[in-house]
Amino acid sequence: MRVLVVGIGNAWAGDDGIGPEIVRRLQANYATTAVVQRGEAVHLAFRIMPHPDVTLIETLADCDVLVIVDAVKSGAPPGTIHCQAWQPNVLSSRQVERSSSHGWGVREILGLAHTLECLPTKVILWGIEAAAVEPGAGLSPELVAALPDIVNRFDQILEECNSPFGTKPGI
Amino acid sequence: MTTQTRTIKVDYMARVEGEGALDIVTKNGEISHLQLRIYEPPRFFEAFLRGRRFEEAPDITARICGICPVAYQMSSIHAMEKILGLTISPEIRALRRLYYCAEWIQSHALHVYLLHAPDFLGYESGIAMAANPELRPAVERGLRMKKIGNRLLALIGGREVHPITPCVGGFYRAPRRNELLALEDDLTWGLQAAIETVAWTATLPFPDFAPDYEFVALTHPDEYPLNEGRVVSSKGLDIPVEDFEKHFAEEHVAHSNALHAHRIDGDSYQVGPLARVNLNLDKLSPLAQTALRQSGLSFPNNNPFVSIVARSLETVHAFEEALAIIKDYEPPRPSRIIAQPQAGEGCHITEAPRGMLYHRYRLDDAGLIQEAHIWAPTSQNLKRMEDDLRAFVPNVLELPLDEATLRCEQLVRSYDPCISCATHFLNLNIQAT
Predict the structure, then answer these.
(1) Which helix (H) or strand (E) holds B374?
(2) Cβ distance B396 to B209 under 8 Å?
(3) Are B113 and A101 in contact (CB under 8 A)?
(4) Backbone phi, then psi, for B26, in 5-degree steps?
(5) For chain B, is the Cβ count within 10 Å smaller at the N or the C terminus?
(6) Could you tell me which of B420, B394, B415 has the C-alpha nearest to residue B116?
(7) How far apart are CA B433 and CA B429, in angstroms?
């Protein structure tokens, strides 16, 4: 099984950088990109995107599971993990794509990939509630404190990826 | 008297701060107020360039735009080389053109297929368009063309977004010949796809609209303009880049944080693919010229909506020129000339996908930047976009509001506005009294 983990966010916009930071830590934790889950080899690949971009679609052919880790603002306490399987319409519309060549969001990219039938069978959204998304480097103290638990969650996500019963909507 | 207020909102883009809006107020069918408001916060790039070393300008300015970093790198590099008296080798020059072709391919393919074509075909987005089985191959074609442009860009620039290898004097690393040759098959496919793109876009329904523009673009005696040339216009202007600020001015208008550029007499002008094609028809590559003849459209063309065809023609050119450069490519040795700092002032214009990008710098003896001026193509087009809308809105006032709104947006999108430098949210408010 090939798992692609994509961390999306801008390291110069406070907690927006949580996605890339998690990917960096996972890369350090998994010195080898091959791990074994339930007796099956899992090949991990990582990618950092400062902002979502349609080029993501180009890499999807090489994975069976796509995990997108990104900052989230929902009003929950900072550091809250929102983890769920992607389904059409799971992300709300911002009509991002209409005028801006820069404005492709995760929703639009996954929507296009879905329409073009190039999404892997499992897509997991791993959102981390942000405290402050403002210009400037560095994560908020709340997210720094929560990081170990957040990163540890990846084992559970991997296990779900490899579940023969499919990925549950709320992991 | 009853007052009817109609409002349409088109929101997009949450990750980048900033906002712009188009306000149109009509009274008795006449426009009483029209503003393309840009309230994106100023980004101060010109200010934080001050005090930095000349070598840093391409790396810093590349950050202005995620879609056209090559343009920012190239305009800054050429300007610095003029100040420092550097002459680059023909091999480096060819590699720069190849690099620029990559940016045009990826930028144009994205705009043509995913951003502009849906307007003409009645879809609200590229995603909705892709859901039509008849149009899905077109979207896939566009994405594959973009991917090829991205790969070429990453190969030369080191990475796709904010590339890192170009520098004053050349490239920190030049690709090996076999690395580029590996892309030959894809580029050959892309050339054919681009020719099909011209044929496809030429059949789109273009609104009947043709203002009396002053088109402005670079022109060069031997080649289609990318990295250098004189500034010419459809109204007879023909000046060296060094005289640019004698003929063009920038103005701060209250409703826009992006400056409005205009001719020195105050008139608006248009830069971009339509201007370039109109002013450089005979410099398009042979297959682009053939595609143009077969398109059934006539050029020079004053219809801004036809810019989608101009963009497609330039994509043919970019693929054809990329293949020609790769065919003869040998890595430049050395890949860069080391420059020594010296005081001076210099400017340069290159052709970004969206139009001319002007940079001017002043350096001190130590090579530190004392002054920087950057004119982005979108700020050069903003005034023209407002003039266009003023002329265009009466044509659509009879349409239902949502249709009228869509037509106005479509017109704005004809300019492929580089929104990271300008608009991030476009809320369209039409008020009719």
Answers:
(1) strand B369-375
(2) no
(3) no
(4) -120, 145
(5) N
(6) B415
(7) 13
d(CA A3, CA A46): 8
Mutate to test the interface with A, among B8, B9, B11, B15 (most CBs of A within 10 A): B15
Q: CB-hemisphere CA count at 13 Å for B147?
A: 16
pTM for the predicted model, two decimal places: 0.87
Please count the other Cβ atoms lying within 10 Å of the Cβ belonging to residue B330.
11
Q: Which of B67, B139, B413 comes nearest A102 by C-beta? A: B67
Identity of the residue in A54, A96, A115 whose CB atom sits nearest the CB atom of B110: A54
Side chain identity, residue B92: I
Q: Which residues pair with A69 in a beta bridge?
A: A7, A126
User: SS3 of A23, please?
Assistant: helix
Report helix angle B136-157 to B307-327, nearest 10.
50
Does B161 sit within 8 Å of A116, measured CB to CB? no
Measure the CA–CA gap between B367 and B51, rounded to whole angstroms: 9
Among the listed residues A114, A124, A118, the one whose alpha carbon sits nearest the alpha carbon of residue A153: A124
DSSP B257: S
Residue B317 near residue B284, CB atoms below 8 Å: yes
Measuring CA to CA, which residue among B340, B90, B43 is closest to residue B227? B90
Q: What is the pLDDT of residues B67-103, one digit of tens each?
A: 789 999 999 999 999 999 999 999 999 999 999 999 9
